[in-house]
Input
Amino acid sequence: GHLRVVPDGRPCGCGAHGCIEQYGSGRALLRMANAIADVGGIGLALADARRETGELTGEQVAGLITAGDAGAHQALRELGGWLGAACASLAAVLDPQVFVFGGGVAVAGDLLLDPIREAFLAHLPARGFHPEPKFAIAELVNNAGVVGAADLARVHAAER
Output
């Protein structure tokens, strides 16, 4: 989350500027959705929800993505674009076989992965000179930390 992808970009809680956390996270999606709602023109349900509640919530944006709201989908595509560009930079150095996405936004599945793949291919240096990685949603989506902590406790208890 703290790989810098935008020089002199948005300030991050870590003290740096332009971290992927500011462009490719659930909070970033909310910020993008709120900005799209403020501009108006697309995603009428997104704009209506913003007017009603002041600030959009993750649950509202997730519901609007599921309902097919154009503004919510635009925000998700923007977020996917940043993640895809970051993955392209990482692939140029590390050449991974797979990128796995978790967290709350990952429940969007292919609605998130499709713009990630598109941006990845658009930004990948030396495209065609090595195999393209797979893109997947983490099986535990947003529960990986909890499951990992429980497993660590299980291992620790078994060692006693």
